[in-house]
Specification:
336 residues; alpha/beta; Rossmann fold; 2 domains; five-stranded parallel beta sheet; three-stranded parallel beta sheet; 16 strands; disordered N terminus; binds flavin-adenine dinucleotide; Electron transfer flavoprotein subunit alpha; DHS-like_NAD/FAD-binding_dom; ETF_a/b_N; transport
Length: 336
């Protein structure tokens, strides 16, 4: 999770929260890295907040040190934070914000960001501004989609502290570079007043790249008929390269139990903007489009020529997916 904190318009502090010690998850956090570019453009200073278990914190700090544009790194290490829990993190974050007088906190619009920021907003009596796609007017105004992405709204807030979540896919990424030596300050985790506790993580195991950072996404809808049939999408994803390609789904496919809900793309699922999005047996409801319409190239495969997905697709194929997908996999394989 990424959060940004500002003291005034000329001094900006970015506060990044690293979720766990697991390397892949650490990497996922850096999808939010584009915010650095935005931050640098606005000449703000950036602090990164890293939290986690005592055994993982130094590795996470090492990762953060590779990125440019940071003023300092603030850490909070506690065995209770090995598995981050929203209330615990927001209580600690409140302490960090108050003790450093930050006036902006920015997190990514991830499930975790969406868990922590409203809690922090409640603790600080501040209204978070969510799903920001552009920071405008020198950080005084924010652009965010509304009505499932059908309209854009420019918002500002008179709150002294601005709490934002940003849609990482709308910001340019910055690559990790050589290691820096930013100063590291420690803040004790806040354990008082924490309601509830972490019990367990139920994470689906996949050898494939995470959906949010995939270069290519193959996504299946209700047209797949059942979960078993998703194997043809996994085969296609494998041919495209599992280090680049992830498999997603529409909500109808998730609700029907074909695939787990962490694969859902759309308004109430994940937002992706890969180089290539292949929508297979998906009709193109606005709630689905809200999660993928910013993809660079969209390919739609649907047997219904009237399907709404064809309106946003760069390439459309009206045909039976059960015929087309295996053939497509075979042809791409033959070219390799
Ligand atoms: C508040 C709210 C939030 C929502 N959030 C989301 C969200 O986050 N993500 C999301 O996806 N939806 C979301 N929805 C649901 C959304 O409105 C649609 O119901 C859903 O996206 C439809 O999924 P689908 O396209 O897979 O299914 P359908 O609309 O049933 O489309 C299936 C498509 O498969 C095609 N097809 C069938 N068989 C074949 C075949 N053999 N070959 C080729 N094509 C075939 C059909 O022609 C059809 O176009 C939300 C709805 C609401 C009200």
């Amino acid at each position: 999770m990424l959060s940004m904190l500002f003291k005034n318009t000329t001094q900006k502090v970015l506060n990044r929260q690293l979720l766990t010690q697991v390397q892949s998850q650490v990497n996922n956090l850096f999808q939010s890295q584009p915010i650095f570019r935005e931050t640098l453009q606005l000449q703000f200073q950036v602090d990164i907040f890293v939290h986690g278990g005592k055994d993982s914190i130094s590795k996470q700090v090492e990762e953060v040190q590779k990125y440019p544009g940071i003023r300092s790194i603030i850490t909070s290490a506690s065995d209770d934070l090995s598995n981050p829990y929203g209330d615990h993190v927001s209580q600690t974050l409140k302490k960090v914000v108050e003790s450093h007088s930050y006036d902006k906190v920015i997190a990514s619009t991830s499930a975790f960001g969406k868990d922590v920021t409203p809690r922090l907003g409640g603790l600080l009596d501040v209204q978070p501004i969510t799903d920001v796609i552009q920071v405008i007017n020198n950080g005084q105004q924010f652009l965010r989609p509304i009505y499932a992405g059908n309209a854009l709204s420019t918002v500002s807030s008179s709150d002294k502290i601005k709490i934002l979540t940003i849609r990482a896919t709308n910001f340019e990424k910055i690559a990790a570079g050589s290691a820096n030596t930013y100063p590291v300050k420690e803040v004790a985790a806040q354990n008082d007043n924490v309601q509830g506790k972490w019990l367990e993580n139920n994470v689906s195991e996949s050898e494939m790249v995470e959906l949010g950072s995939a270069k290519y996404v193959v996504s299946g809808g209700r047209g797949m008929k059942n979960g078993e049939n998703f194997k043809i999408l996994y085969e296609l994803a494998n041919v495209l390269g599992k280090q680049h390609c992830a498999v997603g789904a529409s909500r109808a496919a998730v609700d029907a139990g074909f695939v787990p809900n962490d694969m859902q793309i759309g308004q109430t699922g994940k937002v992706v903007a890969p180089d290539l999005y292949i929508a297979v047996g998906i009709s193109g409801a606005i709630q689905h489009l809200a999660g993928m319409k910013d993809s660079k190239v969209i390919v739609a495969i649907n047997k219904d020529p009237e399907a709404a997905i064809f309106k946003v697709a760069n390439y459309g194929l009206v045909d039976d997916l059960f015929k087309v997908i295996p053939e497509l996999s075979q042809k791409i394989k033959a070219l390799q």
